[in-house]
Structure formats: C-alpha cells, structure tokens
Amino acid sequence: MQTLTEKVWKLKPPHGLFDETVIQNLFPDISSGARRALVHRAVRKGEIITLKSGLYCLSSEFNDFPPHPFVVAGMLHAPSYISMESALWHHQLIPEALFGVSSVTAKRSRIYKTPMGVYSFFRIPCHHLKAGVRAEKIDGNDWAFIATPLRAVADMVYRHREITWEKEGLRFFTDSLRIEIEDLRNVSLKDFREIYNSFRNKRVKEYLMDLKREIAA
Q1: Segment 57-81, tens digit of pLDDT
Q2: pLDDT > 80? residue 217
C-alpha cells in the first residue's frame, strides 16, 4: 500500500473522497512537489482514482462504501444540481438505467470523464438556480440537490433548442426518453410559478405554460 493510500485509508473520509486540503493536512512538512509525487504513485498503482485535478477517491480495493454518483457530481462542479435525464430517472419516470450523470450549473458547461463515470454539467441562465430544486436523501445518510420532475423537464427543453410545444408537445419525452405519457400528465405543478419565474428564455416559458394547460386539462 502506498504511503498516501495508507494515510487516507486510516483517516476514513466519507466514501473515500478527499481533496488537496486533506493531502496537505496529512503531509504538512513536505513540498507541494513531493505531495504530487505521492499522488502520482498511488494513482499509478491503482489505489487512488483521480476524479479531477485536486479531487480523488480511494479505489474499490480500499473503499467499502464508494460514493453515490450524485454525491460525486456535487463535488465535481459547484454550484450545481442533478437534473434532466438523471433527475427524471431518480423520480422513476425513465425506465432504463442511464449512462452518466447530467447536472445544471451556474458556471460554464463542462464534461468530466472519470474512471467512475461521465459527468455532464450544462449552464442554464436563470434568475434563481435552485428554483424547483430540492435536497433529497439518496443513499444512507447522503443527500443531493435534485430537480423536481417539472424543473428537469424545463431544463431539458432549454437544452434542446428544437423542442417547442407546437412541434413536439410531449413527444420528445415519450419517444426519445420512453416516459409514459400518463406519468408526464401527473407531474406535480406545485412549484410551477417558482420555476416559470426563474427562467428568462421565452421558448421554455411558453412550453411550461402549454404543459400546465395539458396537465390541468
């Protein structure tokens, strides 16, 4: 076991996740170059996984409780929240398991390809980033910020510029994502005003209004 791996393993950070600050605290008396060498050797041996520069995770060999993908997403690119396909899957609207995790961020769009999966972050300009977003328990004692179904739908409409109510209606969601139309019609409108007012995009706002009429009919 590499020196860094042993120190982190004994520290037992939640789910084996740790960052540069942890490494500095574990090795306060060596140079930054020496700390980088410790990381390099542990990664090369497959004992530690690099998620991004400065963010790491113990490999499964030394990690009995690996992190939930939504937890990893929240640490990779903040502020952000789980949305679009990933949120709809979480709410059991999408039947099949998904490849990767989709999130919305206030920062620039970015994709992280890691040994623990692909994490996509899409910037969506809005007045209130967390409108229609709730902290939800996902696994054990872990929580993540996750879009409500209505917010996830609105985010997908913004992301896919070809979607308008006149052209698509609900077909994009029923055909491309295989969501049952009755499940879409049963989506809660409790946070409608909050979400509607947060968006600046006219196309998204028009889609939301037509969707509300469809659901309320």
Answers
A1: 999 999 999 999 999 999 999 999 9
A2: no
User: Does 50 lie in the same domain as 94?
Assistant: no
**Reported pTM:** 0.93
Burial group, residue 150, by CB count within 10 angstroms (0-12, 13-18, 19+): buried
Q: Domain boundary at 62, 77, 106, which?
A: 62
Enter the tokens of residue 7.
Answer: 């120190």
pLDDT at 199 over 90: yes
Total domain count for the chain? 2
* Pick from 23, 26, 25: nearest CA to 40: 23
Tokens 């590499």 correspond to what residue?
2
Could you give the residue ranges of the DSSP H alpha helices within 27-118?
Answer: 32-44, 69-76, 84-90
Token pair belonging to 159: 């992301």
- 210: tokens are 């037509």
DSSP state of 93: -
26: domain CATH number is 1.10.10.10
Q: Which domain holds residue 27?
A: 3-62
- Name the domain boundary from 62, 89, 108: 62
How many CB atoms are located within 10 Å of the residue 183 CB?
16
